[in-house]
């Protein structure tokens, strides 16, 4: 498979997709971690500090209530939620999108997983717990070379209809990671360079709603990345700059092409998506936004 790093390559592959004869089942399972250990103990992205440089403080009780309501919203969309134990020494472990990337192997016809190499030492110890989980669930586990940082579903988004992976790089994931993803998974990969430190993961600025619609924070990407996004999607929905930065508007989750779970502060985007016919489910994730995460960051989508 190939790296689709120009609009022409992407359009040509879309027209003559050699994987179109293969089918991938829909996903319906969510893995989450209870937030009992969630707090802000360090700063590894710009969202985690106050203007005076101090770390933001988390209201643990409020965070737990918000998390429970998010679980309920996911279940209301017909998803099965499994809860995994978190660890007290890893306060960011609750952001379950980051530690691994799960994909459907088109040759073996089963899901497999690529474990992350977290860029920051504060989070590297989370990975063995996810490896243990996937071993217990009989997944074939792959690892990326240690010298390449890679942060899982935070920087890799799979389109199961078009059978392509969109891969963010430049902030947390190494520039060589898209090529290695292509080699390991057998999928063509669209590399999207991130240029703005406010959007340190792809999932903070890029939210496919299906194969035609995508929500983006346009100031997150290089010009080349934006050209690729416009080549890949018929309808590119631009999140309001303030909502995207302050309320993580693009960190929404659309599990089925019709339901959208999104932080409730993003009223402009909520109105826009409702007008396009999506069933929008606003939730409060304000305690998690303090750490730079929202709806998408808090879960891992599985088969």
Q: What key phrases describe this protein's structure?
A:
alpha/beta; 3-stranded mixed sheet; 14 strands
Description:
The protein has 9 helices and 14 strands. It is of the alpha/beta class and 303 residues long. Strand 6 and strand 7 form a beta hairpin. Helix 1 runs parallel beside helix 6 (223-232). The model has no long low-confidence stretch (mean pLDDT 97).
Low-pLDDT runs of 5+ residues are none
Strand order of the largest sheet: 2-1-14
Amount of helix: 25-40%
The largest pleated sheet is described as: 3 strands, mixed
SSE pattern: HEHEEEHHEEEHEEEHEHEHEHE
Q: How many alpha or pi helices?
A: 9
Number of strands: 14
Query: How far is the first residue's CA from the last residue's CA?
Result: 23 Å
List the helices and strands and how they pair.
Layout: H1 7-15, E1 29-33, H2 60-76, E2 80-84, E3 100-105, E4 110-115, H3 121-124, H4 127-136, E5 140-143, E6 156-159, E7 164-169, H5 177-185, E8 189-193, E9 206-208, E10 213-216, H6 223-232, E11 235-238, H7 241-246, E12 259-263, H8 267-275, E13 279-283, H9 286-289, E14 300-302
Helix pairs in contact: 1-6
């Amino acid at each position: 498979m190939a790296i689709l790093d120009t609009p022409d390559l992407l359009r040509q592959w879309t027209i003559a997709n050699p994987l179109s004869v293969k089918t991938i089942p829909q996903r319906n399972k969510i893995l989450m971690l209870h937030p009992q250990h969630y707090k802000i103990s360090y700063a590894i992205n710009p969202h985690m500090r106050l203007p005076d440089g101090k770390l933001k403080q988390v209201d643990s009780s409020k965070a737990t209530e918000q998390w429970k309501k998010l679980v309920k919203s996911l279940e209301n969309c017909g998803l099965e939620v499994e809860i995994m134990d978190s660890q007290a020494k890893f306060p960011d472990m609750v952001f379950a999108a980051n530690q691994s990337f799960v994909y459907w192997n088109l040759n073996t016809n089963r899901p497999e997983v690529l474990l992350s190499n977290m860029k920051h030492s504060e989070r590297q110890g989370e990975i063995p717990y996810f490896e243990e989980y996937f071993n217990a669930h009989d997944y074939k586990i792959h690892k990326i070379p240690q010298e390449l940082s890679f942060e899982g579903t935070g920087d890799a988004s799979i389109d199961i209809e078009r059978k392509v992976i969109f891969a963010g790089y430049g902030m947390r994931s190494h520039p060589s990671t898209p090529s290695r993803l292509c080699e390991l998974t057998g999928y063509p990969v669209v590399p999207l360079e991130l240029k703005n430190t406010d959007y340190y993961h792809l999932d903070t600025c890029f939210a496919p709603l299906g194969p035609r619609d995508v929500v983006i924070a346009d100031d997150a990407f290089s010009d080349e990345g934006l050209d690729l996004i416009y080549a890949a999607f018929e309808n590119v929905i631009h999140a309001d700059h303030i909502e995207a930065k302050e309320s993580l508007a693009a960190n929404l989750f659309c599990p089925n092409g019709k339901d959208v779970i999104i932080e409730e502060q993003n009223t402009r985007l909520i109105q826009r998506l409702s007008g396009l016919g999506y069933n929008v489910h606003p939730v409060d994730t304000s305690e998690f936004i303090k750490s730079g995460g929202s709806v998408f960051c808090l879960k891992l989508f599985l088969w």
